[in-house]
């Protein structure tokens, strides 16, 4: 009998030890909700609010271990108000309310935090959530930093191309013939120079550059699976004549993401802003539509400087006065947080203000704050007015149905040999991925009548906007190529088959255009399971239809 009892006790102790071992091992799991799917890799499954589809978001164990380490650096566990919040004051950036600035500057403080070193732990561009936790850790540990993000609008300014925004609070346009263009261009490019001069990220903050890296490795297959980012913009940016002279000198730890504060990072970003407001004063620079009333401003705002709805043209026309005022503002405050949401004007203001006074933090927030500040949904990841219960917009707006999203680190490499003048000097590669795991790119084709078009690279031309003209007589322009092709390619056919008149006639025939993208057939429709956006569909479909795919086709 006693032997049976002894065996039972041994079983109980064995079960207890197993449970204890599992508990201890979970403490080393960077994020408790992540589950191992194979050795060295962790994944979490996210479903949309209606649970009609899900996506697996994964990354290596090393990335998640680093995220846990960074999130534990200088923790802010208690919601402490270091001071009484003020009723926010609104002032134009062009016509300063110097009395209010003087009054608010009295509250500038020597931030009572011991500055602690923060290291990313490797020499590459971190993953999308790794860089988020790195930047937040730097701020928590007492460092003042500057982050300027560069996307398609900034690329157009750097290249002197025409541009018209489509998703901002007040859509802005850009014209390089403005007399202030050379000065604005110098200011925008100075962000790269400042990042190069900041040196490696060690015990100091400094300048960080947001570039359109993919969130997901799957973006290498097609940018629609990238979760954010655009490789063609990224390569065009780092190889542009004004920028490439600085790229080799910029520590890759100083390169972050264009959508650093949006997409899958959106919920964490809003939480970060609220935590910052508990400990630092927040100064907002944004569109003058906010001047409708201070009563609608979020609770975390202490002061607002506005820029004109006329955007970049207004900035270039008043550039001398605006830059003078921006320097004055930067020098008037100490240890404040500047959140700037002003399109390419942010990229001009942030390097200027950080050089004038590096004792503040300057963050280019872009359209991320539009919903909080203006109560307008300008981005797909913003909460939905009509469906306020839908808390998963940040997921469904950036990932495709049932896709996987593998977060990776990136590295910018110099190509071997001496490239020709019109060739790219730098390339971008994932660092922690086996070659066999890099997605293969399937051929994208579009049929218009009897003519078949293929996505092809064209020497000296890159698709950057839907408005680009055809680069060759036998190619279609940005209207058709944008959003269908990736890596800046154009839809082209054999020169002997194509004429613009034939394309117009064929596209009006009863045989409707269709495209094969990643093995799925897309047709003009209004009720497919997965549709491309308006810009990608305009070249083939009517105003009420989109290029859509369905499992029935």
In short, what is this structure?
The protein is α/β, with parallel strands linked by helices and 553 residues long.
Shape: globular
Tally of individual helices:
17
Number of E-type strands: 23
What is the mean pLDDT? 80
Cα distance spanning the termini? 70 Å
Q: Report on the biggest sheet.
A: 8 strands, parallel
Strand content: 15-25%
Instruction: Give the class from helix and strand content and strand pairing.
Output: alpha/beta
* Helical residue percent band: 25-40%
Q: Which stretches of 5+ consecutive residues score pLDDT under 50? A: 24-39
Report Rg: 25 Å
Give the strand line-up of the largest sheet: 4-11-10-12-13-5-8-9
What is the assembly state of the chains in this entry?
A: single chain
What keywords describe this structure?
single chain, globular, 7-stranded antiparallel β-sheet, alpha/beta
């Amino acid at each position: 009998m006693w032997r049976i009892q002894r065996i039972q006790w041994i079983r109980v102790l064995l079960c207890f030890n197993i449970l204890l071992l599992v508990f201890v091992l979970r403490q080393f799991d960077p994020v408790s909700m992540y589950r191992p799917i194979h050795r060295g890799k962790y994944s979490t499954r996210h479903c949309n609010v209606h649970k009609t589809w899900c996506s697996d978001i994964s990354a290596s164990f090393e990335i998640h271990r680093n995220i846990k380490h960074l999130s534990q650096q200088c923790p802010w566990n208690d919601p402490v108000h270091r001071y009484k919040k003020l009723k926010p004051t609104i002032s134009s950036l062009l016509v300063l309310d110097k009395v209010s600035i003087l009054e608010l500057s009295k509250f500038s403080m020597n931030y009572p935090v011991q500055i602690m070193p923060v290291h990313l732990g490797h020499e590459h561009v971190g993953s999308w959530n790794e860089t988020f936790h790195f930047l937040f850790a730097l701020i928590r540990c007492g460092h003042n930093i500057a982050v300027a993000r560069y996307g398609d609008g900034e690329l157009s300014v750097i290249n002197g191309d025409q541009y018209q925004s489509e998703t901002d609070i007040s859509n802005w346009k850009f014209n390089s013939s403005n007399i202030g263009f050379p000065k604005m261009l110098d200011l925008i490019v100075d962000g790269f120079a400042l990042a190069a001069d900041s040196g490696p990220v060690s015990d100091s903050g400094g300048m960080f550059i947001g570039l359109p890296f993919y969130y997901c490795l799957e973006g290498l297959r097609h940018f629609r699976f990238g979760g954010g980012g655009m490789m063609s913009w990224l390569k065009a940016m780092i190889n542009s004549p004004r920028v490439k002279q600085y790229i080799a000198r910029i520590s890759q730890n100083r390169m972050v993401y264009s959508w650093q504060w949006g997409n899958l990072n959106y919920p964490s970003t809003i939480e970060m802003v609220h935590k910052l407001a508990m400990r630092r004063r927040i100064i907002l620079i944004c569109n003058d539509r906010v001047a409708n009333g201070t009563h609608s401003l979020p609770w975390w705002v202490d002061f607002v400087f506005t820029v004109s709805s006329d955007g970049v043209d207004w900035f270039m026309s008043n550039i001398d006065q605006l830059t003078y005022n921006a320097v004055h503002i930067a020098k008037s405050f100490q240890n404040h947080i500047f959140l700037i949401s002003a399109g390419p004007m942010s990229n001009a203001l942030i390097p200027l203000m950080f050089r004038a006074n590096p004792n503040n933090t300057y963050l280019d927030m872009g359209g991320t704050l539009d919903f909080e500040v203006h109560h307008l949904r300008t981005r797909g990841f913003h909460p939905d007015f009509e469906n306020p219960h839908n808390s998963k917009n940040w997921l469904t707006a950036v990932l495709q149905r049932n896709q996987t999203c593998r977060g990776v680190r990136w590295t910018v490499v110099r190509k071997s040999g001496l490239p020709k003048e019109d060739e790219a000097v730098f390339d971008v590669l994932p660092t922690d991925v086996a070659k066999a795991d890099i997605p293969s790119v399937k051929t994208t084709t579009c049929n218009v009548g009897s003519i078949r078009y293929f996505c092809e690279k064209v020497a000296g031309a890159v698709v950057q906007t839907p408005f680009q003209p055809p680069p060759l007589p036998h190619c279609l322009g940005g209207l058709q190529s944008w959003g269908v092709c990736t890596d800046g390619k154009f839809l082209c056919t054999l020169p002997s088959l194509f004429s613009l008149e034939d394309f117009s006639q064929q596209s009006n025939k009863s045989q409707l255009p269709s495209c094969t993208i990643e093995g799925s057939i897309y047709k003009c429709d209004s009720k497919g399971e997965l549709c491309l956006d308006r810009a990608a569909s305009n070249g083939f479909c009517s105003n009420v239809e989109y290029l859509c795919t369905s499992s029935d086709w």
